[in-house]
Amino acid sequence: MKIKLSNSHKFSVSDSSILSRISLSVESYDALKDFIDILMDSNNFKTVEFYQDTNDETPVGTYTDMKVISPLLRDLDIVDDKIIISFGIREKAETEKELEKANEVQASVNLALTYLADEEALTVKELFPAFESLIGQTLTKGTRLTYNGELYKTAQEVQVQEIYKPGAVGTENLYTHISDESHAGTLEDPIPAQKNMEYIKGKYYIDGDTIYLMNREGMEDGEDVTLQYLPSELIGHYFSVVE
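Below the sequence we write its predicted structure tokens.
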């Protein structure tokens, strides 16, 4: 008897194999590792075909949307220098199928979001994950997330920790606030100021009811820097008040 998986892998199995217990042999522990990798990939079990004989081309049974149910490595044995492994499969429940489809849709959305420019991302910021949901994860540089209704991106690879919140003093090297780039940064249309935001020399910002010019000495016009303080806290250093 043999089985054929969705990825076209074919395996000879014991003639007594049934869905709940499929037994086969591998030649070495390296081959066992390769087979376990196959078992771990749920995509391989979207379709499983059983053949009565290894030379048959017509399956005696075809099953779809299956999943592995037996704990891996639970049923190992050595027979004639071959490693015997047994596992079971069953059809996924409807709730499992629905969850899988939802996860696939979310993965597609997440991929699409990575292609948005920052100003585009601001218009759909509610689609990005919240800081609280990412605690404990390691994020690559440029990953966008929300905190307190504001959109941020990681300034470097970051291991998300609850004590280092976006926008907090001392986290400017971890998270950069994404500002509303629909504002021109002119005196007539200043950019709303936020902590841990990129500020550009030569542009105007509004903090409260006051307008400030970013005019840091030693920086060229158009050069940017991420600051953890508001313009009102850096008067004379990075900003001057516009009278």
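Residues 94-114 form the longest helix (21 residues).
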